[in-house]
Every structure is written in C-alpha cells, then in structure tokens.
Amino acid sequence: MTALFRHLVVHLRPNAGYRLKLAWRILSGDWMYLPGDGSFRHEPAQALANISSEELRHRMPTLDSTSFADLERYLRVCRLLAIAEEHPELFGNTIVRGELFLTARERARAIRDQHRLRLAQARCKSQASSEVLLAHHGLKHEVPSAVYNYIRGKTFVDAGSFYGESSVAFLNYQPGFIHAFDPDPMTEHPFRSAMKQHGMSNYEYHPCALGNKKTSAEFRNVCRNRGAQAVSCNVTTLDEVFREQKESRLGVVSADIEGWGVELLEGGKEVITRDRPVLLLANYHNRNELFGMYKFLMEQNLDYTIKMRALCGGVFEMTMIAYPRELDSEPTKNRMYSL
Fold first, then answer.
1. How does pLDDT run across 53-102, given as a tens digit for each residue?
2. In the 3-class helix/strand/coil scheme, how is the chain assigned residue by residue?
C-alpha cells in the first residue's frame, strides 16, 4: 500500500487536502473490482495521461471553465488508470470508482441522477447510459433553446448507432430524416426494431463506417466480446452520402466511433461547412481525436461555440458539443450531473 500511495502522489499532483481525501477513499474501498484475468484496459489512459492543464488551455483556448474542469477531472482518471496499467502488481484487475473524482455536491447530484437513470431504463426497456437516456448526448441540457428550432425538420446522423437508443432519443427533436451508421452486422435488426417500435420510417440504416475516404477496413467489436473476430466493413464519408441527397440539410451529427472522430469530420468537410450542423461527438479515445476535432472546427472558421462535457459522470467518457455561435442568444438549461 505504501508503494501504491507513492505512485499516486507523484502522478496525480493535487493539493494536500485532495491527496489526503484520495488516499482515504482508496483505503476505505472506493474501488471497483472486475472479474477476469487482469486484462482490463482503458485504452485512452496511456495516450492522454501526460496531457497537462497548460496544454489544454493552450490548444483549446475558447473552451469555457466547465469544459476545462470536466477535462481535467477526466485526465486525472487517465493518469490513475495509466499507473494501474504500468504497475499491475499494485492494482491487479481493478479500476477506480467514478465517485472518487466528484465533489460532495456532484456526488449528491449523481446519486439523484442515478435513480432517474434507473427509472428511464425501466421505462424505455433499455440499458443505455445516462449520456443517451438523460442527456440526449448534450441536446437536453447543454445547448441554448434556439438550437431546437435550428435542427427541427433537418437530417440527423447517428454514427455508431448500435441498437438505436440514440436515434430514439433524437425523435424528441423532430428530425426530418435519420442516417444511421454502424459496421457491426449484429446491430441492424435491433436498430430497425427500435425504429419500428417508435413509428419512425424516415431513416436509412448504413451497414458501414464513416471516415475521410471511401475504402474498406477491419472491424472488431471488443465492447461486446473481447475475443470477437475481425470482420471487413465498408467505409464511406458524410460528403459522399449528402452529395447523393443534395436537397437534404444536415442538422445534427452524433458520433461515438472509437477514435475516428477526426476522420469523420474530414470526410464531411463540404456538408459541415455548407450546413453548419450541431455536433455531438465522443471525444476521449486518443490525443489526436481530443485536439484534432477542435483544431478542425477552428480551421474551418465555422464560428462555433465549442464545449466539452462529461455526460457520463466525468470518468470514462467526454463529449464535444458544438453549434453555431449565433444560437447563444438564448439561455442554456441548468446543467445535469449523472453517472
């Protein structure tokens, strides 16, 4: 335990009070033990653990204070998990519980939202996360009211659509059409069933991935099965899809595509510049994605408000929310904390 505490203090570098609280929570059992052989890995940990607060502010200067607070909390988690991966003799097959990095006030809100999530999961008969069921990838609490009129009746893109939980949530915002993309062949039937159950017929399911060029790639769904075999899938681009549908206006792009976020934006440069859609992009997989998506949006001079938010409790995932700056004229709803 002495060696463990030494590694934590060296790498996390918080103030003295935070160090004591951290040590106490670890010693009092604030850990989540995972079954298995010790092979658990949080892939972003090693890639992001060495990013400093100064680098964040230098490379993403327009973010608000909440964005920096959520990012710095997430990076603290990455540093801790990186230590665990470097020193399995100290940690074994464990990961730190999310509550460790929340303040007392955030914890209280997280507990309330956990109850809300359980009710939402029961009502929707879904095990989707709070990011989907409660936050709608940021649309419900993190954008000004003007966004809703801006996106109503337009085309939504759901990249990494899985079983359709996100697309179902987006029905609250009256999309004119939904393009869903997922290379996993086992998701098509559940997705179509979800759309049928909710009376949505204005959609197209694409059994492929999104990238920056038309090609093919190997895909392996390790989220469902770590031993899954790789399957070949086609890759297309947003520009290609909307080039074939010139009358369609893009309103929302939601994507969680395991680190390919920059490639998605590059492949949609034309339509994103033309339509300036609201972007709800998972942004936590690697360094290139974290900084690259922000850099892309700034280089296109789209005049976006860009935020980074922890919609799943600020521990293992981050979401980039971007929308045209002129929509900021109306207020944003109160923020929701959830785990």
1. 899 999 999 999 999 988 888 887 777 777 666 665 555 445 555 555 56
2. CHHHHHHHHHHHCCCHHHHHHHHHHHHCCCEEECCCCCCCCCCHHHHHCCCCHHHHHHHCCCCCHHHHHHHHHHHHHHHHHHHHHHCHHHHCCEEECHHHHCCHHHHHHHHHHHHHHHHHHHHHCCCCCHHHHCCHHHCCCCCECHHHHHHCCCEEEEECCCCCHHHHHHHHHCCCEEEEECCCHHHHHHHHHHHHHCCCCCEEEECCEECCCCEEEEECCCCCCCCCCCEEEEEECHHHHHHCCCCCCEEEEEECCCCCHHHHHHHCHHHHHHHCCEEEEECCCCHHHHHHHHHHHHHCCCCEEEEEECCCCCCCCCEEEEEEHHHHHCCECCCCCCC
